[in-house]
Amino acid sequence: MNRLFFGDNLEWLRGGKIKDESVDLVYLDPPFNSKATYNILYKSPVGADAQKKAFEDTWRWEDGAEAAMEAVRRSDVAIFRVLQALQGFLGQSDLMAYLAMMTVRLIELKRVLKSTGSIYLHCDPTASHYLKAVMDAIFGAANFRNEIVWLRSRNPKGSQHSIKKFSPSTDTILYYARSSEAPFYDDAIRRPLSEEELIEKYDREDEHGRYADGPIICSASMGPRPNLVYEYKGYTPPPYGWRVNIEKLRAIDAAGNLAWSKSGAPRRKLRPDQDKGAPVGSFWGDIPPLNSQAEERIGYPTQKPLALLERIILASSKPGDVVLDPFCGCGTAVHAAERLGRSWVGIDITYLAIQVIEDRIKTWLPTTKYVVEGIPKDEFAARKLAELQPYTFQEWAVGRIGGQAKGRGPDKGIDGEISFISGPGRYGHAIVSVKGGRHVGPDAIRVLKSVVQREGADMGVFICVNDPTPDMRTEAALGGRIELPGGERPRIQIVTVKDLITGPNLGILTELNTVRATQEARAVQRKRPARKPTPEELRREPPLPPMPITGGKPTRDQQPLPLDEPLLVNQVEKKARRHR
Ligand SMILES: C[S@@+](CC[C@H](N)C(=O)[O-])C[C@H]1O[C@@H](n2cnc3c(N)ncnc32)[C@H](O)[C@@H]1O
User: How many CB atoms within 10 Å of residue 224?
Assistant: First the structure.
């Protein structure tokens, strides 16, 4: 049965839900430690889009890298030595944290792979050389098959002058087999030749049509083949033998596809209608990245093209095989696997990703049968999640109220944020505090109020496991009220696990940019004549939060553009004003 798991892949892999040697193909596309903050678009009913952070692409040493190193030491000393050597060079850096966290997961992935299985690790050149050393240690250097280079950008962005290097435009995919028994279905991924290539290749003609000259005798490098050494029409080949058995040879001859050279050596005539296509090399420049108008584009950051996943799945699995993507994002591997008749397992720690995948399945693959695990269905399950996996609980709880959870690490009192619609073309900002413990009191509400004030936010939402005490209610009520499109509401709202299960009502509106919404927005865009916005329209645009220039978090001192003057003014008038 196809399965979608919500939560940390390490927890699921260790939890025994995915059995040893049960998977035929693993594709993983983990966040690359690029320090970028990915954003996902939320469509608002008033026509503008607000940006929301989907997940933070950052690994920090203090978030468990030490524990990961220790887990590797306990599981395999040889692999641990490789990590230690890397640590000697990289220290306790974020990159080293990324490598340690990847290593524990890769060890688990090896465990679940069948002996005939394959694994494709999608990464980028910042870390691929370190990851290759780790993969060699885990899977064995002899099982390395390819370093695939995918041309992910055809129009490299940014000025080389400012970045002082060639603009990065490729990703790296490390392909390893679990053992030499892992199959490679090269015929399934061959590229059909173009008309020009066919004309160039099949450059001879006889009474049956065009053909190319090819060998019918094996070459010396193929080694002796005594069972294929037989006489045919008076000719006996050298010890390497014919390329086919006698029945096939007769059929080839009968079809007019056996020729004899002037010296009396047999040759085979190859016909264009039987051409198998060109084999695919390890440079993949023929799979374009998703452009903004691509039908399959969902808006999830780092979404990969279906064609990329289809090639991988076709090359290393057959129908009915099991494909696992432990960092499945918006589910491209899931989508491709389902389309190609494979079973699949997807895991993602972002609640939003699970919502997007379900939406994707509903839109494009409505008959798909699958189960979702890890999302609490009742209060008991939610409490258990809070106790056992506090970060996953936080991710689910914040996602349930339409917000975006903060990653692990120092949170400055902010466990999540919500961008909500506060009026036509206007957005409000709410701070979310999550307390998974059983004993919380009015102090926690006071802290949230001060964070709301410090951040200049409009609202605060306090999520707790148990019903709030009367003191907590009073403290929240003292926070005052806020005017929202649906009416007045408390500025500080308390949400319990019970509310999260039944569906909380905060009186705010946020709308996830679903597959349907993306398609509708695209259709509207296509109809809209291209023109510049008027100064009045520019004024009406909602103010976007300050965005980092090179990734990382927005800093407080980045100011929004001053829009108290129209941006488009008559240049003569502007000059005159400057001289006044
Ligand atoms: C680069 S994206 C994958 C994109 C995906 N290939 C696609 O086409 O949509 C990485 C994903 O890994 C998820 N992720 C990060 N850490 C994780 C973890 N420990 N367990 C499971 N998923 C994780 C993130 O939420 C994110 O969706």
Answer: 13
